[in-house]
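Troubleshooting: if your tokenizer reports a length mismatch, compare your output against this known-good record of 264 residues.
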Amino acid sequence: MMSLQPVTREQAALNLKQCAGKYRAAFLLAALPGIAVVVAAAFLVDDPKAVAAWVVLMIAGFLCSLGVLLTRQVSIRFRYRITAPHSTLMMAGALVAAVAAAAGIDYLVVAAVGTGPGTRRITVPVAIFVIVCTVRLTQSYLTLFSGSAYALIVRNARVPWSLVSQVVVAPGRTPDSTEIGVRTARPQPQSLRIRENEALRDLPFRVVVPTKQFDMDRLHWAINQSGRTDIALLYRTTTGEQLVRMSNMPVTPYPQPDQHIGRF
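Known-good structure output:
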């Protein structure tokens, strides 16, 4: 459970540093067995009856899954991240495509130079590179919004806390959607392409997210990680903007809930 108690910039940075260390450990727990899975799969291509390779594949697959779960658990302690709808299926599809591409590369290399230890020295590192790059790029693509002590990320645009003046929330124009926008302290050019379903077009940074993933408390927590006390969290309706809370100020009850906004 995220605490909404005020935090200083130093406290937020310390929490980020501590969690980042645990995140890296969990990531390694997922990545290293993942590499073992790729290596075992490469051996199974040559010999599907290799018992040792099957054992390594199953154990490494279990450890990789455990590492992924731990990574997700640790990440929610230092950032608030909202992903695109069906992100799990899209990530799974990207992984399948990456594995298929790696297998295709392996097939072409084997067809060109034949099998042997030297062949695996080429295909295994290439397969690992393809899969890791696919995961990182897909993860970045699927991230709609992220907030941490580092900065705000809105549609892959990094917004440093020194630039943030207000964070505005509004009902989305499409069903089951909510929009988050960032008003900056200094005028900023429209760096993000305007989309038809956006209502906060007057703000330089904005994104439409699924309402079921939106949580006003978690957004408030993310704003607190700035360490500042002058960032306003606003809620916009057709009648204007309403102050919800200020960053790192004593917690007060929210205004009258709006059924369109989740956890508000």
